[in-house]
Amino acid sequence: MDVIICFQKHALKKSYKESREHFHRERSWLWKLFTGLCILVVMCLLVVWSYMGNGRKKHPSPNILSQHCAGLQKPLNSSSPAGINSKDSEKSQSLINSIYSEFGISLEDYLRLQEAVHWADPDRSITNVSMSTSPAHTTFIIENLKKSYQTGEKLFVTVHAKDFYNKSKSYGGDFFQAKLFWNNTKASVFGDVKDMLNGSYSVCFLLPWVGEAQVAVRLIHSSEAVQVLKRHRDTDSDRVYFNGYYEGPGPNKTRLSETVMCNVKWDKNGLEHMGTGDCCCEYKDPHTEEIWRCQRPKSLPCSALVYHSMGGYRNRLTEKEKKLMKQTNKDINGDKSIIKIFSSKTIGMLVNSLTQKNSTAQRCRDAGKCVAQKRGTDVLTLRQYKIKKCHPGLHTPVPAGFYLNDVWTSFVCSTRHFTTQMTSECLKDKHIYMMGDSTMRQWFEFFVKEVPNLKQMDLHVQYQSGPLLAVDVENNIDLHWRAHGLPLRTEKTAVADLHYISNEINGLAGGPHMVIMFNLGPHFTTYPLDFYTHRVLIIRTAVLALLQRAPDTTVIIKTVNTGYKDIFGSDWYSLQLDKILRWAFQDVGVYILDVWQMTACHYSKENIHPCPVIIKNEIDILLSFICPV
């Protein structure tokens, strides 16, 4: 009996112990579960907070084609390739397909464009000018500065933006330009500036030459000034206007004439201010379907429009905006250390090889003569260092090249430096058509001056807008230039002489002896981006058709220059247009000649019309495209 009682007590004790251990295990498991749930909730809150923050920072402003693509105005995110929610996806795709199918623009193409032109906005209301970026207080430092570097290495610089209170800024959107340079050797290279969206900017430089260098950074526009530019582009596009000149027969064999205001028909962005209904005469191009309109003359019919000219500028900046725009194109303070660069074994050989050719070209240029290099040397360089032969469709890197002794060495492809004789040989049997603005006309003027037998014809037209013609009968060269059509800031010129680029291209047969080049930019800086995009896509369609019927035609696009710094033609405006132009032609099979970097990093005084040194280097690249080796 005692044994049984003892056994029962032992069993009860064991059962109690096991129950207690089970209870502790249960409680431990519950505690772990509770802890895990808490961590999961915290992580979810962090993800939501991060998503909301990124949405505020990265949400593109819906200013491109937005009247057709309202459903696309959603933040881009990795979970949705289209950057839109499932409800809007089908509708947005339908809009893109129905409206832009003629241009071959897909939803993905549209989103790439939207991302390309997106620019960060301030994350707060700017109540006074002192809150804007101050060029005097903003500084830059060289990261991990070393005693010396080798060619081909990269140099990193950080810019810290501050306001006029010397307080660090916490948001991005400032427009900086940076370069590495050395005045003694007339050397410079463009720096790639990346906005970190927190008031800091990272700049990356390639070190391409042997010698010394320093860093220079400029504040082109503060983020607050960029907002001024945006607002006036989106609401005040009629601040540049034009004149239309009407002429016709009057009583008693007299001539009547009236001058009225004209502009693009685009019923928003301020361009609707001209009026509605029967206010105006409208001129719709049958091919591009773009409409130019002028105020209706009082005594003459719409058909009496004969001439066109620049009208004037309207500066509608407020006093606050004027103060913000004053802090434009200012050097900022920073590390002035001299960078020591020595030759490396691999990249140095490449750079030395290229610059040696440049030095030879410069000596020959200075002496007025040149000994042609053997083609075998160029081939060896191409094979050994994998420098690409120039061909259509090449990507433009940053940097695209560099200056040394005022000669540009290209990293895009294997370029040469052309003497007068080489230029004539390259252009022989070529029919060259140039279309664009006055910066493209600088190329025409260079050829007329450089090629001895190329003689300009007097076509008795207004020189600023053309058309212009030069002929070399001996070498069978004909060179044409004409303006890109309306809108055009020019002196009084015949409307009949103003042709759209796309119409001109559609009228050319193309072929191996034809070279077509054009640019489009400075005359469009005040207009909404969707208007410019539409014009560019029409030209793209014409180029695609040309290359379809004559694939051996050479087509070259000149990018936008730097040089403008005001409300009517800022570099920021030009940069936006440049991104659209590159986006539209990135897959078309044309040459893109980058002059943005060439004009931004040169030591000469900035001008929308670059100095002769820059033009000569642009022409060398142009001729290398036409006559690649």
From TrEMBL:
Q: Which residues form the signal peptide?
A: none
Highest taxon of the source? Answer: Eukaryota
The transmembrane residues are 29-52
Is Membrane among the key words of this record?
yes
Task: Supply the alphabetized keyword list.
Answer: Membrane, Transmembrane, Transmembrane helix
Task: Return any one Pfam family short name.
Answer: NXPE4_C
What organism does the record attribute this protein to?
Cyprinus carpio (Common carp)
Keyword flag Iron: no
Protein name per its UniProtKB record: NXPE family member 3-like isoform X1
Ranges where the NXPE C-terminal domain occurs: 408-627
